[in-house]
Amino acid sequence: MIDPECIYELQAIRRTYEVGGEAVHALDGVDLQIPKHEFMAIIGSSGSGKSTLMHTLGFMDSPTSGRMIFEGKDVSALGRGARAHYRASRIGFVFQAFNLLPRLSILDNVLLPLTYGRSKLSKKEKRERGAAALERVGMSHRLGHRPGQLSGGERQRVAIARSLINDPSLILADEPTGNLDSKNRARIMDLFDSLMQEGITLALVTHDEEVANYARRRIRMQDGKIIEDDHG
Amino acid sequence: MNPLSDIVTGSMNGLREVAANKVRTLLSMSGIILGVAALVTMVGIVQGMLSNMRVSFEADGGILKIEVDKKDLDEDQQHLAGLSPGLTWRDIIALEQATHLAPYISPIVHIGWERLAANGRPTRAPVYAVSPDFISIQPREIKHGRFISDMDILNKSPVMVVGSYIVERLFNDAENVVGEQIRLNKQVYTIIGQTEELVSMMGGRNTLRRKNRGVFIPATTGMSRYQGNDSVSKIELLARDVDAMPDLIAQVDNVLSKTHRGIMDYEILTQDERMQEMRKLENSFTYSLGGIAAISLLVGGIGIMNVMLASVSERIREIGVRKAIGARSHDISLQFLAEAVVISVLGGLFGLVCSIGLLSIARNMIPNGEAINVFPFTAMIFGFIFSSTVGLLSGIYPALRAGRLDPIDALRYE
Questions:
Q1: Total-model pTM
Q2: Which residues of B touch A15 (CB under 8 A)?
Q3: Contact B9 A115 (CB under 8 A)
């Protein structure tokens, strides 16, 4: 059964690496459904498989086995080019280290995914869209600045604007507050919360329980398995 | 979407990167700059030298000219020396009657480096006694008057044809000196013709200057007034065409062996050797320059590859970010390739600018450097295309390496 309200449906996903001739099961049979407008946190210690899960959800990696349905399509065995296309058009990434390109202006950083998304928008439309995305994160006053001129919290808000630019189905945030102080951490989480209200779907990877508490749903991972799925 | 917009995107990213790293870009360009500058400069210099040689070769009569020179006898003919009259006016007449393959035949009698005077001003110039055909063998334009005629030969007239040097030195650079009197040693001659200045129009100074100094008098006048016999210094013939040359040489040899009674006191020379010499020089220049250019551009290419590889490792994280937000392998490869091409194209252009400067310097410093073209177009186009290709080729490997990076590993890279 494919639920139309479901963005992702994962069935018995396994990801196995060879490390020194030994098989490591980074994901060891993961079943997971992500409905639209979900705000979930994936929690776990390092080596629990949470990063591999995020990479798999983000089309950065393909599962070794299992079935993966994304927006009604089977995406279990996509090639590199097809995965790049999904990353460019359907997924937004937010990183712990912000990962803005230092040579580009704030606006150009935000517009970068459009370059790779084969967008047919005109230059003006792109600019407007970038400005709107920066508006949503409260950074519209710094379009022409470079990332180096911004504080960490501001940079992360720009990075979030970048992840929003393509109207993605799912935003994946990997320890988005890991490099921020507690004040900025709260701001970013509040921003995520308000974006959630506006209808985005967000999966947050963290080992910080406090951050995870912002989420509606918490998935705890250990040894490549989901050991807890808390909808509280 | 379409390859063109991918290339545009890649090039824009590449250009931005180049602009952001000006010093590094300039350093990595230096190999290409030097390579192109050296190549174009050397080709320019060599072309100038060769064109000098070619111009003076043509002014001497070119490939169709055959010369008959005096030659010392071989040992086995030494005792016969007295029996041959040597090269004489009679040889000219015999040759004129015997062959139709040479439309122009002229003796040259070297009178010597003589004293000339007019308007109370003296100078010295080489004096040649020749016949009317001479001007067709070593071509000159008549500016005023006429060249020596058959009547002058017949009458042994005291007439003279002068070039620009004499006009300048003795006649204040007058426009027309035909009809003026001029003294050759003690004797008075009338100027009947004035030749156009011979100029090899390659630059500021005239490389054919010495040819404008000589003066011409009728062969018979020279023989009767200065030597009292009909012997000539040499004979020059101009063949009808290249195909006629082997036969003409045989005919000349036949005629002369008859008039010289089989005594080999003459030799028949063609311009073939000089031509071959020129070709050989041209080839050796081409090969050695080609080698130097190839090596220096290779070194330039290695420099670019080195910088590009460094640039890739420096930006692994950036590559990871770009890939995470949707860049495909070839988007990344194109970006780095565009960067390499931009570096080499800019380097090539700077190299061309340098070569213009170097050629201007060479023009002023090298003797006879006036023939050097400061703007050797073909060499410049070639150098530019070559350097761009080298840049493209040396960018391929780093670009592929960047494109192949796995986004997860690249993002983790510190």
A1: 0.71
A2: none
A3: yes
